[in-house]
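Hello forum,

I keep getting stuck at the same step: I have a sequence, I want structure tokens, and every attempt I make locally crashes halfway through. Rather than fight my setup again tonight, could one of you with a working pipeline run this one for me? It's a single chain of 199 residues.
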Amino acid sequence: MDPLPVKRALVSVSDKAGVVEFAQALVSLGIEILSTGGTARLFMEKGVAVRTVDSYTGFPEIMDGRVKTLHPRVHGGILSVRTNPAHLEQMKKNGIEPIDLVAVNLYPFKKTVAREGVSIEEAIENIDIGGPAMIRSSAKNHAFVTVVVDSADYGRVAGELRKSGGVSLETRKYLAVKAFAHTADYDTAIHAYLKRIYG
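Reply #2:
Ran it on my machine without issues. Output:
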């Protein structure tokens, strides 16, 4: 669909620059926001209506936050092909709601390993798992999902939503390409660090 309407967004970011204003813009347009951890707490503090991912999935964040978005109700909501009747039936059967926009950026791995004296354990804990999975899922399914990995794109997306009630296919393509570049750069940084440390 072009432009693509957005009814539900998942917003969970490490870099919180501009995210409150972006979320406020989404809520003002009647978009439901799902969020996790520190981002959800920030929204609550700022009075932004938010639904926590664990309340949506019915499964708590576990293992010190290592597992929170790796759930079929999250990835089914992102990856479903909205024009496929079988997918729609499976969503209905499993209580999966469509997620139309995903705004995610990743744990600050590069900044972490750039600090003097950082331990390998701390570096490992800053390898994001759920974030890249959501970004890649959204970028893969950009025919039906808008993915935002850079706060510089918040204004463009919010502007299109205000103007036309949806996000254009042109913008979704642009953002999908940017998303895959983001995860590729992230994995390259992890590879370079581990190669240097482990040899």
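DSSP finds ten helices and five strands in the chain. If your local run keeps crashing, start a new thread with the error log.
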